[in-house]
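Hi there. Long-time user, first ticket. I'm pasting a complex I've been working with (about 304 residues overall). I'd like to know whether the download I got is complete or cut off, because the file seemed smaller than I expected. Thanks.
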Amino acid sequence: MPHDHHDPLSPSGHPYRQDNDEPLSYWQMMEIAVRELMIEKGHLTANEIATQIDAMDARSPADGAAVVARAWVDPAFKARLLDNAGAASTEMGFDIGPLNLIAVENTDKIHNLIVCTLCSCYPRNLLGLPPDWYKTRAYRSRAVSEPRAVLREFGVELAEYVTVRVHDSTADMRYIVLPARPAGTEDLTEAELAQLVTRDSMIGTGVPRRTL
Amino acid sequence: MATPIMADRVRVKTLVPPGHIRTPWYLRGKIGVIERPLGEFGNPEQQAYGRIGDRKPLYRVRFTMAEVWGTRAERPEDTLDAEIYGHWLEEI
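Hi, the file is complete. Here it is re-exported in full:
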C-alpha cells in the first residue's frame, strides 16, 4: 500500500484523512441510480449537473455583502430589503431561485442571530454553503439556549442595553442579518463598504470590520 | 396568503406525531406572539414522504427566552423567533 503510514501528520503538517473505502450507503446508491437514470432517459446531461454544482459553488458571502452595502447607502433599497429580501436581492441581479428570504436588521439596541436547530437551513442561494460549525449540534443547540455565551466566544461583545433576537429557521424561510453600518465609514464607496461585510456578520455571529 | 384569523397570542401544541415534523421539541407548550404571517406552504409532514403537501398557513412566532428556558434564560427579555405551521398553534 503506497499510502500506509504511522505519522499522524503529512509532511505539509496536515492530519491524514482516511480514504473513504467503506461501501456506499443506501442514499448514496439511490442518488447515483436516480442521476444515471435521469441521464440515460435524456432528462439531464452530466454536464448540466456539473454546471449546476459550479453555479452553487460560485455563490459566496460576497453576494450578500453587496446587498448589505447597497442597503447602507440607499435608504429606499433598505426599506425594500426589509420588506422583501428575496425581491430586493433579485433586483440586484442575484438569482436566488426559490429562496424565501427575510432580512433582520441590527440596530444599536437589537442584535440578531441566525440558526437552524433542526438541520442546516441557510440562505445558500445568496451566501453560498454554510460554514461547518453552523451545522454542528453545539452551535444549533447553544445558539438558542445561550446565545450570549456563543456570541462572546465569537468575539462579539454587546452593550448591556442590547436585546438579542435569535431566529430559528425551522421551515420555509431563510434569514440574513443586515448588520449595522460601522461608525466612521461615511467616506467609503459602496464597493468599499461591501468589503467590510463578513460572512459571520450576516449570520449574526460577527460584526462588520470597522476599516478596510 | 395566510389565514388572518390567528390570535396574536398562541401556544404551540404538545403533539407527538410519528414521522417527520418541523416543530422543534423545545418550543412545545410554549406561549408566544405572532410576529408575522408568512403565507401558505406545503405541509412538510407529507412532503417528507414524497407526497404533495397540503397548503398550510405558516407563522413566525416570537417567544421570550424566559418563556422558553424559564429561570435558566441568560436574559429573560431576549427573544426567539421560529416558523410554526398553523396546525401546530392554538389560540389563547
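A couple of notes from our side: The first helix of chain B runs from residue 44 to 47. The beta strands of chain B are 9-12, 31-42, 55-64, 79-85, 89-91.
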